[in-house]
Amino acid sequence: MKLKQLLPMLLIVLVLTLMAACNSDNESKEQHEKNSEETVKTETTSVAEKEENTEETGDSHATLRNGAMLNPTIIEESGGTVEVVYTNTKPGYVNDMNGFVVMVNSYQIVKITNMKQDVENRFKGASDGYVVTADISIENGQNEDVYYNHIMRLQMEDSNDYIPSNNYEFVPDDKRISWKEEISKFEPGFNQDIFLTFLMSDEEFQSLHTVEPKFIIGAMASNHDDFSDSFGSETVFDFILSDEHAKQVALAPKFYHDKLTTENIATKEMMYEDLEINETKQLNTFGFTIEGVQYTTITPNESSKERFSKFGDEELVAMTLKIKMDNQSDQMVWNDTSAFLIPNENEARILNHGIVENSDISQMQPGERAERYMVFLFEKKYFDIYETFQLEVGPFMGEDGYIFNEEIMTFELPSGR
């Protein structure tokens, strides 16, 4: 075939090739724009794929640190815009109640804006709010059934001001407990991860920044369905709101867990502490140990001022003793024995302030150990005067009255000066 005859055919092939290339470029551009739109939509409205990728890596906390959602159900149910505020992947919150262990593996704070109208009633009618999701493990390591209500709370200004946990709102079905027989009954070997949520209005969340918020894991576990002979005690932890808050808490003094601290009754400032006294005295086979002491100035919170009205406007000092007891006797011993703080060789006798004390159990059966934070309150002007302090404890009470021959223990304490 001659060259003149070939030229038209070559031109047709060239034009078709160019058209195909242009169509391919347009399709690629359109596909890229589509993918970009889908990416933006996924990042702002859905985290399902991120959660699936997390499961494939086997590291559920890796993507949490990158800001992924711990609880996508919040997006689905609220219908609003959800923003991750803070994620704590290692809170260290554990309550071990004689082998029945409750642990907070992680928690996440999110803010919801423009939620659906039928969801607003969960937030007191507001269209904006906050949800804390706590990822919790519950394990029954005992050889018998344990009855437990798995209730927790976020405490704000005091023990009457708190956000209760919720096991239904924004909790997916696979993160609720599936009871085999009775509600609140945990069989031996039970081990499950669940979610609990805490719902707050914007005002409630902002108020957390004005106090020292606490995360409290409830107690009152029992081997009986009527909750008789319950065991365990509440555990109280600082509830961290941000990375900056975590740094502040890490640098703050570690105050003893009397109720002044755990119930946010007062703000403390450390004056003096000795955490290594470790002096033990015995009454027969009952051991009483003072592990340490802290002296703090305290400022009662607004809701608690009435409790301290007898001191007027005087600046107050709290002496808190950390006590350990070991009951190897054959008698039950009550863990609320009165004590007196005696300054300057009987210049005064200051009774312990039991209403702000904490203890893990109320009575010690034979063979049991217990812990107690014993508190004495007095005006700061006397702290500057007193040079010596003596502690007088007892007599101790048993089931039928005084025991250990009504003996009294005495200890010499550091004055903090």
Automatic annotation (TrEMBL):
Coiled coil spans: none
Source organism, top-level taxon: Bacteria
Skewed-composition ranges (Basic and acidic residues): 27-41
Protein name: DUF5068 domain-containing protein
Signal peptide, first to last residue: 1-20
Keyword Ion transport (UniProt): no
Gene3D superfamilies: 2.60.40.4170
Membrane-crossing segments per the record: none
Species name: Ornithinibacillus xuwenensis
Region (Disordered) residue spans: 27-64
Keywords: Signal
